[in-house]
């Protein structure tokens, strides 16, 4: 399987996140990519392609252009007020039910365009965001040129990012952009399977009223876990999209027995949908001991996940999402790939 990857994400570092009552270095770090690349190359998966450069046209089909422009300009605006070396982060969030009047200040923009305390914007963030989109779109092009499956090693991840909001380490939704690009190349239907531990609220919201993209997610239940407000099983889509959104929430402590059964349910629905392409939002933060997760999957389980997905026999576009336990991240991602390829 070809890997698409660029080092251009590396300047997206040094930001902090508020984890409950503590300010900590972001769990989502550049070193994550080193772990993954090393583990993949150890088993001979070292066919790495540099991304091509694309304009923002497809990004603008998924995201509000004003939001994208905010992401580009947020850090320089922040730096004008606070000086270099820090990170932009919101102080207030949407005040439901109250009249609100956004303005041109960086703080107002952060309040409008982010939804949580884990999407800091540093000097290198925009370059990383652009690169992740290029990595995703180069994967689409590779599949267009005949590759049956490719792995876009995107960083930062994307599945929490909605049309006009960043959050959860995510700024631009790489998987959604990839799905849209596959459609634009002529695929009538694309499915997104999201196996990240967290519900992909952004991906769900982007495609919630559409039937040309099926979104199926396995994740920790909102009663227990971030993003706390979405991801319930009764969220099945709306309008044309009704029946094309599948959420399978599971409790903290979930082991592979339950997970595997639920994965089979999601795969069955994807198979019935008969998509031309499967976009896999691949997070391995379901691993036991992940510092941001709470499930109990073991490393060999990821091989089974890859294997079950491959049984669909659908061209599959891997897009990297979460996974934060550095010692295990590389092996777990590698296991999904080898399970898929075997
Ligand atoms: C892409 C991705 O995986 N984003 C995740 C963002 C989650 N940030 C909030 C973390 C909430 C902390 N839960 C801690 C569980 C400790 N076992
Ligand atoms: Zn996650």
- Neighbour order of strands in the largest sheet: 4-1-5-10-9-6-7-8
**Euclidean distance between termini CA atoms:** 11 Å
Helix segment tally: 10
Structural class, by secondary structure, is alpha/beta
Shape label: globular
Provide the residue-averaged pLDDT. Answer: 98
Gyration radius, in Å: 19 Å
SSE series: EEEHEHHHHEHEHEEHEHEH
Helix content: 25-40%
What would you say about this model in short?
This protein has 342 residues and is of the alpha/beta class. The chain contains ten helices and ten strands. The longest helix has 20 residues, at 125-144.
What would you note in describing this structure?
The chain has ten helices and ten strands. It has 342 residues and is α/β, with parallel strands linked by helices. α1 (31-42) crosses α10 (326-341). The N and C termini lie close together (11 Å). Strands 4-1-5-10-9-6-7-8 form an eight-stranded parallel beta sheet, with helices on both faces. The protein has a two-stranded antiparallel sheet with strand order 2-3. It has helices at 31-42, 57-62, 65-82, 106-113, 125-144, 174-184, 201-207, 256-273, 299-310, 326-341, and strands spanning 2-4, 16-19, 22-25, 48-49, 149-152, 190-194, 213-220, 245-250, 277-282, 316-320. Bound molecules: N-[3-({4-[(3-aminopropyl)amino]butyl}amino)propyl]acetamide and zinc ion. N-[3-({4-[(3-aminopropyl)amino]butyl}amino)propyl]acetamide is lined by residues 19, 118, 157, 160, 168-170, 196, 198, 226, 283, 285, 292, 294, 321-322.
């Amino acid at each position: 399987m070809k890997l698409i990857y660029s080092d251009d994400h590396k300047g997206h570092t040094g930001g902090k996140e508020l984890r409950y009552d503590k300010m900590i270095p972001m769990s989502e770090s550049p070193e994550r990519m080193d772990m993954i690349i090393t583990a993949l190359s150890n088993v001979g998966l070292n066919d790495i392609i540099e991304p091509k450069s694309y304009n923002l046209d497809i990004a603008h089909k998924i995201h509000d252009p004003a939001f994208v422009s905010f992401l580009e300009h947020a850090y320089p605006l922040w730096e004008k007020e606070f000086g270099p070396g820090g990170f932009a982060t919101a102080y207030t969030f949407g005040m439901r039910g109250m009249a609100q009047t956004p303005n041109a200040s960086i703080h107002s923009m952060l309040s409008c365009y982010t939804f949580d305390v884990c999407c800091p914007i540093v000097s290198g963030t925009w370059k990383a965001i652009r690169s992740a989109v290029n990595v995703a779109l180069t994967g689409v092009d590779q599949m267009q040129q005949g590759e049956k499956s490719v792995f876009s090693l995107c960083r930062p991840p994307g599945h929490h990012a909605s049309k006009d909001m960043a959050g959860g380490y995510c700024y631009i939704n790489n998987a959604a952009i990839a799905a849209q690009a596959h459609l634009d190349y002529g695929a009538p239907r694309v499915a997104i399977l999201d196996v990240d531990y967290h519900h992909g609220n952004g991906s769900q919201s982007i495609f919630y009223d559409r039937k040309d993209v099926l979104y199926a997610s396995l994740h920790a239940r909102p009663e227990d876990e971030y993003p706390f407000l979405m991801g319930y099983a009764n969220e099945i889509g709306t309008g044309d999209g009704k029946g094309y959104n599948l959420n399978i929430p599971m409790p903290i402590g979930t082991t592979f027995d339950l997970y595997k059964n639920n994965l089979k349910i999601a795969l069955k629905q994807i198979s019935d949908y008969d998509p031309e392409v499967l976009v896999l939002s691949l997070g391995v933060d379901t691993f036991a001991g992940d510092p941001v997760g709470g499930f109990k999957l073991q490393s060999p389980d990821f091989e089974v996940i890859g294997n079950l997905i491959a049984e669909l026999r659908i061209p599959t576009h891997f897009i990297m999402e979460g996974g934060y336990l550095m010692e295990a991240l590389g092996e777990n991602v590698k296991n999904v790939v080898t399970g898929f390829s075997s």
